[in-house]
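dumping this here so i dont lose it
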C-alpha cells in the first residue's frame, strides 16, 4: 500500500461498523465489502470472497479472522492487529455496558418491544450479507448455479450444511467452478 492513510481509514471504518452491527459482524459485511472493494479497490470481489471462505472454514471467531486478513492485505501484520481490535473492541465495550443496563431494568416492558423489533432487523441484515457474498463469489454461470442449488437445498431440507460445503470444495478443487 502506498497510501499511508489506508490503515487508519480501514481501522476507523471497522470500528464504526462494528459498533452498529446488530446480530454480529456479518450483518455489516456488505458495507465492509463496499468499502474495501468498491470504494478503495484494496482487493477484488474474488479476493474478498476467498477471505470470507477461509475465515468461515477455520474454527473460532470468523469475522475477527476475516477482518484481520483484510487488514493484513492493506497493511501487513500491524493492519491485521488493528483490524482485529477494531472489529471486537468497540462492540465488546458497548455490549458490556448495555448488558449491565439491560439486566438492571429487566422487568420493564420496553425490553420485550426492543427484542421483538431487533429480530426482523437482524434477519434482514444477515440476508443482505448473504446476498452480497453470493454476488461476490458468483463469478461464472457455474458458480451461480451452485449458489442457487445450495440455497434451495438449505431452504427446503434439513441437510447439514457441511455436506454442501464439502461438495462445493470438491467441485472447486476439481476445477469445475
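and the seq i came up w/
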Amino acid at each position: 500500500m502506498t497510501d499511508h492513510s489506508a490503515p487508519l481509514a480501514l481501522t476507523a471504518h471497522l470500528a464504526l461498523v462494528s459498533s452498529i452491527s446488530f446480530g454480529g459482524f456479518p450483518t455489516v459485511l456488505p458495507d465492509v465489502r463496499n468499502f474495501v472493494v468498491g470504494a478503495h479497490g484494496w482487493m477484488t470481489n474474488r479476493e474478498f470472497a476467498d477471505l470470507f471462505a477461509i475465515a468461515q472454514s477455520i474454527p473460532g471467531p470468523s469475522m475477527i479472522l476475516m477482518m484481520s486478513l483484510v487488514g493484513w492485505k492493506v497493511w501487513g501484520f500491524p493492519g491485521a492487529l488493528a483490524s482485529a481490535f477494531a472489529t471486537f473492541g468497540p462492540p465488546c465495550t458497548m455490549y458490556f455496558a448495555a448488558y449491565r443496563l439491560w439486566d438492571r431494568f429487566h422487568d420493564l416492558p420496553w425490553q420485550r418491544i426492543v427484542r421483538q423489533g431487533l429480530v426482523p432487523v437482524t434477519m434482514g441484515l444477515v440476508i443482505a450479507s448473504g446476498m452480497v457474498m453470493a454476488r461476490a463469489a458468483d463469478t461464472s454461470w457455474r458458480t451461480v448455479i451452485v449458489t442457487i442449488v445450495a440455497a434451495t437445498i438449505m431452504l427446503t431440507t434439513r441437510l447439514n450444511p457441511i455436506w454442501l460445503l464439502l461438495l462445493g470444495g470438491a467441485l472447486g478443487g476439481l476445477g469445475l467452478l
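The mean pLDDT is 90.
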